[in-house]
Queue: 2 jobs
Job 1
Amino acid sequence: MRLMMSLAIVAVTLVPAFGAEVSYSTPPRDRPGSSGDDINSLGNVMGLTQLRHIKLWFAGRQRNWPLARYELDQIADTLRHAGMFYQNIPVDDVRAAERQLDAIRVATEGKDPVGFAKGYAALTDACNACHKAAKVGFIAIQTPTTSPFSDQRF
Ligand code: HEC
C-alpha cells in the first residue's frame, strides 16, 4: 500500500501539467555528432580523448614508451569509431589526426623524444583543425602544463 502511494506521488510529480508535452530528447544541433542526448555522445567520447591526450603527453615526456603507445592506440581507436558512428564528422580531419598518430607511433618505436614532441604538437593542431571545421573552434586544445592524474605514475 505504501509502495502504491509512493508510486502515485512519483507519477504525479513526473506529469508537469495536464496535457503538457514533455520532450526527453535534445534538439538537433548545428554541428557533427548532433545526436548528443546519450551517454555515447561525441562530446562524451571527446572528453575521454582529452584525458588520453594529456596522458600521452606525460607518458612521452617521461619516456614511458609502452604507456605512450597504449594511449595513442586508444586515441586512434576512438577517432576511427567517431568517424564511423557520428553524423557529419569531417572524415579528412579524422585522417589528418590519424597521420599524426602514426608519426607519434614511429617516434615511440624509435624511443625518440624529439620526434614525439613534434608529432604531439602536430596532433594537437589536428585536434583544433577539426574543431574549427566542426564549428566548435572555441574548444582549443594545447599541450598540457600539469598532470591532473596524481593517482598514476608516468
Ligand atoms: C574529426 C574531428 C575531430 C577531431 C580529429 C577531434 N575532435 Fe574533439 N570534438 C569534435 C567535435 C565535433 C566536438 C563537439 C562534440 C559535441 O559535443 O557535439 C568535439 C569536442 C571535443 C571536446 C569537448 C568535450 C567536452 O565535453 O568538453 C574536447 C575536450 C575535445 N573535443 C578534445 C579533442 C582532442 C584532445 C582531440 C585530438 C586528440 C580531438 N578532440 C580531435 C571533433 C573532433
Note: Residues 31-33, 36, 42-43, 46-47, 49-50, 53, 75, 79, 89-90, 93-94, 97, 123, 126-127, 130-131, 134, 136, 139, 141 surround heme C (CB under 6 Å).
Job 2
Amino acid sequence: MSNLPNPADMSLDECGQIFLSGDAFTDEHFFHTVSARLRKEAPVKWVEHELFNPFYMLTKHADVLEVELHPTEFLNAPRAILGDKTADSMREMQGHLVKSLVQMDDPEHRDHRNLTSDWFLPKNLATLQGRLDELAERSLQQMADAGGEIDFASEIAMQYPLYVILAILGLPESDYPRMLRLTQELFGPADPDFQRNPDALQGILETVADFVAYFDGITADRQANPTDDLSSVIANGIINGSPIGHKEQLGYYIIAATAGHDTTSNAMGGGMKALLEHPDQLARLQADPSLMATAVDEMIRWTSPVKHFMRTATRDYELRGTTIKEGQDVLLSYWSANRDEDVFENPYTFDVGRSPNKHLAFGFGVHYCLGAMLARMEMKTLFGAILPRLKKVELAGEPALSWSNFVSGVKTLPIRYELA
Ligand code: HEM
C-alpha cells in the first residue's frame, strides 16, 4: 500500500529509525514486523539521524515498565515527546508554550496531578454514565440514519469521545467542530488530511495560539461563575497555596481536551476494525456481553493509540546490559511492548477474553493515564450499545491509518451493516 521498504531488506539501524516519521504507523504489519525484530535483536537500540537528537528506543515490555517505574532516574522533562532538532531547540529557547502533566516531574507533577485526580475517580465518573448512555444512543441513531454504510472512524469513533470531553469540561456542543479541528491539528500536524500549515511546526504554534485564546475565555468565565465542571477546577486551581500558573492552566485544559480525545477515538475505531478482522471474536463478544471488560482492554492493547513517550536519564543506568548515560534519552514504544512474546501469550492473536492483559497502553507508575477508567467506561458504553443491534457488519472499503508517531490509529473505516 505504501512506499515503505521491505522489512527483510532493512538494516538494524534502519529498523531503529521507524519512529522518526509517521510512515511506519500507517501500516500495522510493517510496524510489527520491524519492532518484533528489534525486540529480538536490538531491544535497547541507539538511534542516530542527522535531523534528530539521538536516543535509545526501547521495544521490550520489561524495559518500558522498568523506566516507567523509576521516575527519579528517568524524567519526563525536557524531552517527553520525540521531535526533530529544530523542535528540540525551539523548546529550549522558548520553554514549553504550555506545560502539562506529561512535561512535569515530581514534586511539581504530583502537586498538579492532585488538583484533578479526584475528578477521575470512579465515584465522580459514575455521575457521567447517564450522559455516556445518551451519547452512545445518539451514535447508534446516527448509524441508523446513515442507512447501512458509514465511516465508523470519522463519524462515530472520532465524535463520541469529543462529546464526552466537552461534557466533562462543561463546554457547549456548538464548540464541537472547533475542538475537533484543533485536536486533530495538534496530534496529526504532519498528516496531510489534518494539516493546517505546510510547515508542521508553524502549524502547531498557530493551533496552540487558538487553544490559548479559547481557554482564556473559559477561565475568565469560570472564575466569575464557578460550576462543578472540570474547567472550574482548573480555572480556580490552587497549587501550594498560590493560584495555578497560566502556562500550567492552559496545559491542563489542553491535556484534558486532547489526551482524552484522539486516544479514545483511535481505540474505538481500531477496536471496531479488529472485530471486523476477527469475526469469530465479534460473534463471541455478541454472544457473551460479560466479556466486554476484557474485550475493551484487548482493543486498547491491540491498538495502543499512544505510540510513544520519552524520558531522560538523570544518572547512568544499566538496562539489559546497556548503560544509559546521564542526560541520554529513551523512547518507550508502547505498541511494541504490547506485542512482547515474553509477556503475552500469542501476542498477535486478538482475544476478547484475554486475561491477564498486562498491557502498557496507559503507561504505568506516576504518570499512569489519568483518564484510563473514563476511556474504558466510554468504550464499554459505546460497544455495549452498538453490538447487540449489529446484525451484520463488514468492511465497505479500505481502512486507512493516520500518519503520526505519537497518537495514531485508524482514521478511515468504511463499514456496511444491518441493524436489528
Ligand atoms: C484509550 C484511551 C487512552 C490511552 C491509550 C491513553 C494513554 C495514555 C498514556 C500512554 C499516558 C502516559 C502515561 C505514562 O507516561 O506512563 C497518558 C497520560 C494521560 N492521560 Fe491518557 N490515554 C487515554 C485516554 C485518556 C482520557 C479519556 C483522558 C482524560 C480525559 C486522559 C488523560 C490523560 C492525562 C491527564 C495524562 C497525564 C497523566 C500524567 O502525566 O500524570 N487519557 N494517557
Note: The chain has one domain: 7-419.
